[in-house]
Amino acid sequence: MKRVVVTGMGVITPLGNSVDTFWDNIKQEKIAFDKITRFDTTEYKTKLAAEVKDFNPADFMDAKAARRMERFSQYAVAAAGQAIKDAGLDLEKEDLNRIGVSVGSGIGSLEAIEKEHKKLLEKGPKRVNPLLVPLMISNMAAGNVAITYGLKGKCTNIVTACATGTHSIGDAYRYIQCNEADVMVCGGTEAAITPLGISGFGSLTALTDSEDPKRCSIPFDKERSGFVMGEGAGVVVIESYEHAKARGAHILAEIVGYGATCDAFHITSPAEDGDGAARAMLFAINEAGIKPEDVDYINAHGTSTHHNDLFETRAIKKAFGEHAKDININSTKSMIGHLLGAAGAVEFIVCVKSILDDYIHATVGYQVPDEELDLNYTKEAVSRPVNYAISNSLGFGGHNGSILVKKFTE
After folding, report:
1. Where are the alpha helices (DSSP H) in 300-382?
2. Which of 122, 139, 239, 396 has minimal Cβ neighbours within 10 Å of its Cβ?
3. What torsion, rounded to 10 degrees, do the Cα atoms 169, 147, 54, 30 define?
4. Which of 338, 351, 361, 399 is flagged as catalytic?
């Protein structure tokens, strides 16, 4: 099996539209939560979200092409362009048949559906945009990335709800391991801060109705009351070690393990004993050929919902035993909210940056310990060696994904 390394990264997030800006804001422990500006929330319990700010598609792509993309596709194309540039990939010199795309979205474009449904009801079927379907379907993020950059290898769209970004990178890792591609542009994207998105998750009682930006997204805190909707994209360039070395690439980190399991338990709740998530982590650890004790850091799914944080804690204990208390655990969602299909990809990028800087950010807002949650949730940021990091994602439907990233050594 081929070794797989990370050589480029790109993001569009509520805390910045470049990796450097995003990471600087993470280190400064800024929070992205504010009143929703996309629509009038007067009749909604949920008032806060983590919206992407100052995003101009024309800064990242052809303006005419951008008009034929919905926001989730624009985010993906922008993040992919950053990642390709960061990787130093000269596409004119590459075999584009050996470069693939694996960029997923959990939902696609609710915005397009809402707008065109309104037209249908008010003006009739002939007024519906003929591009509605290619605008809204979730695979168009991957398709638009491939079209924009001319990437002709495998092109897939993983849809596993909130585990989408993690599975997209994990499956891309497998493609390279099995020599189906030399390079993969992979990650997740989402833009679901819309009336239907907020009301749907709100009716499910998954969203917090807190109006305090400092106490709305507080993973692992006893006072947690639901997640805050975020949006954006995270995309990375990964490639075989041989390919990266041959072109003199700067290698950021190495992916050494991937685990994917299903709880087969409930459509929205993780398994109460954490078994599925624990097995995903152990699959990744066993593939890497290391011991659980070698893992320094876990970027948890950590949504700030009662069930997720409790059952993920149980999963970590089940997978790591006594070592669970020695691991630094945090949740990036404490600052940017839940990016749904993009969450795992952005959090994977956080893991890579943590490894590069030997720095683990705080779970911002964590104040009130929960008696049932007794691990180290990194109340304050810490500088420490990070040689192995795991990124966890858990999705509606019982989907679990864990990726193990290692500090790169020859």
Report:
1. 306-320, 333-336, 343-357
2. 122
3. 10
4. 338
| CA atoms 235, 72, 19, 386: torsion sign | negative
In tens, the pLDDT along 64-109 reads: 999 999 999 999 999 999 999 999 999 999 999 999 999 999 999 9
Q: Which residue from 330, 380, 368, 337 is spatially nearest to 351, judged by alpha carbons?
A: 330
pLDDT, one tens digit per residue, over 232-287 is 999 999 999 999 999 999 999 999 999 999 999 999 999 999 999 999 999 999 99
301 carries an active-site annotation: yes
User: DSSP alpha helices (H): ranges in 102-240?
Assistant: 110-123, 132-136, 140-149, 164-177, 195-203
> Greatest CA span in the chain, whole angstroms?
64
Choose the catalytic residue: 162, 186, 216, 351: 162
Q: State the pTM of this model.
A: 0.98
- Asked about 338 being catalytic, the answer comes back as yes
